[in-house]
């Protein structure tokens, strides 16, 4: 009887210890930092990933999303990821040029993507995959491409034709291609962190900028810009990336679940981006604070002709073969450069 009691006590103790250990096991924390507002396409997609990841891992993973540069500004976030201070980012594709992967600046070339179909063929095909692979030598793994959209130009004077930008100080991301783009228009490019743009526009440090409508609206830039032009001249997209050491150190089953959650979040992000931009443009027009010009087909051709020389000028930086490979994708859809 004493023996049975002893065995029972031991078993009870083992079970209790096991339960305590399970309760004490800390979830894997993924800090997901980004620089835009929570109600942008990227912000909503990050929240979708958090929801799916936490639900599907049954609490074994906790995703902490930090929007609006709460943790890091543009220039700081990639270094923070490489150091392991954060585990996940979704920086704009222009950010990888300063990191040493200049090929990503091909996405900044004006009018390189004549349609969403061409863009999707690039990001979801061999070209997009090969570009993400180039990040691994930097301690980074690329998981997905997320859309934002095509950019509008804004300033405190009407921008009806390319010459209207001459002499204007225009905020850009750090990108040699975007620098060349603005110089081709006679503007003075000013590299500046996204979180600083509103105040810079408000105080006249810069005269204007380029953004997809959702970014312009959620950052309230329309309150400090009198005019906008829907040129759709450039694309702004993001790469969702993770710290390589962290990602490869995850249990295989957890990593597989997170990959599934990322795939679904990517479909969500790319599905809502156009709607969000359309809604943001409509809201800014309705506010009456920014007057938007919708160029005619003929006017758009003038913008296109003014900016196409940037392609050839940037061949040495992003790679002539890469540019040609995107042209070939466009030709499959009936477009010719």
Set out the fold topology.
Layout lengths: L1 H23 L3 E6 L7 H16 L4 E6 L7 H10 L4 E2 L6 H4 L16 H8 L2 H8 L6 E11 L1 E4 L13 E4 L3 H9 L3 E4 L5 H7 L4 E4 L1 H6 L8 E3 L5 E9 H5 L3 H36 L3 E3 L3 H11 L1 H5 L1 H4 L1 H13 L5
Parallel strand pairs: 1-2, 1-3, 6-7, 6-8, 9-11
Antiparallel strand pairs: 3-10, 4-10, 5-8, 5-9
CATH hierarchy, class: Alpha Beta
Distance between the termini: 90 Å
Number of domains: 1
- Tally of helical runs: 15
Biggest β-sheet description = 6 strands, mixed
Signal peptide: 1-22
Family: Belongs to the bacterial solute-binding protein 7 family.
GO biological process, one term: transmembrane transport
InterPro entries: DctP_fam, TRAP_DctP, TRAP_DctP_sf
Word description of this protein:
With 337 residues, the protein is of the alpha/beta class. The protein has 15 helices and eleven strands. The chain is globular. Residues 1-23 have low confidence and may be disordered. Keywords: Signal, Transport. Residues 1-22 form the signal peptide.
Q: Which key phrases capture this entry?
A:
single chain; 337 residues; D-Maltodextrin-Binding Protein, domain 2; six-stranded mixed beta sheet; five-stranded mixed beta sheet; globular; disordered N terminus
């Amino acid at each position: 009887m004493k023996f049975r009691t002893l065995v029972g006590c031991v078993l009870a103790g083992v079970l209790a210890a096991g339960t305590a250990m399970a309760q004490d096991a800390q979830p894997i924390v993924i800090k997901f930092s980004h620089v835009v507002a929570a109600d942008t396409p990227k912000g909503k997609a990050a929240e979708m990933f958090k929801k799916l990841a936490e639900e599907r891992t049954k609490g074994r993973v906790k995703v902490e999303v930090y929007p609006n540069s709460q943790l890091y500004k543009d220039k700081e976030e990639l270094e923070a990821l490489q150091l392991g201070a954060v585990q996940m980012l979704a920086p704009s594709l222009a950010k990888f040029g300063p990191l040493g992967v200049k090929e990503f600046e091909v996405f900044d070339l004006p009018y390189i993507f004549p349609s969403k179909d061409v863009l999707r063929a690039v990001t979801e095909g061999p070209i997009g995959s090969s570009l993400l692979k180039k990040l691994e030598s930097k301690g980074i793994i690329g998981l997905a491409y997320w859309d934002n959209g095509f950019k509008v130009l804004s300033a405190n004077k009407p921008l009806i034709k390319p010459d209207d930008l001459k002499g204007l100080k225009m905020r850009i991301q750090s990108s040699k291609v975007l620098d060349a783009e603005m110089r081709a228009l006679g503007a003075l490019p000013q590299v500046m962190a996204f979180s600083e743009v509103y105040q810079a526009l408000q105080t006249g440090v810069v005269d204007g900028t380029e953004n997809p409508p959702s970014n312009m609206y959620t950052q309230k830039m329309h309150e400090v810009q009198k005019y906008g032009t829907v040129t759709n001249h450039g694309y702004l997209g993001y790469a969702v990336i993770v710290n390589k050491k962290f990602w490869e150190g995850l249990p295989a089953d957890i990593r597989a679940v997170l990959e599934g959650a990322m795939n679904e979040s990517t479909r969500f992000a790319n599905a809502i981006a156009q709607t969000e931009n359309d809604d943001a443009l409509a809201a800014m027009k309705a506010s009456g604070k920014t007057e938007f010009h919708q160029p005619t087909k003929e006017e758009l051709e003038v913008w296109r002709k003014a900016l196409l020389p940037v392609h050839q000028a940037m061949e040495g930086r992003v790679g002539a073969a890469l540019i040609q490979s995107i042209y070939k994708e466009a030709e499959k859809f009936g477009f010719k450069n």
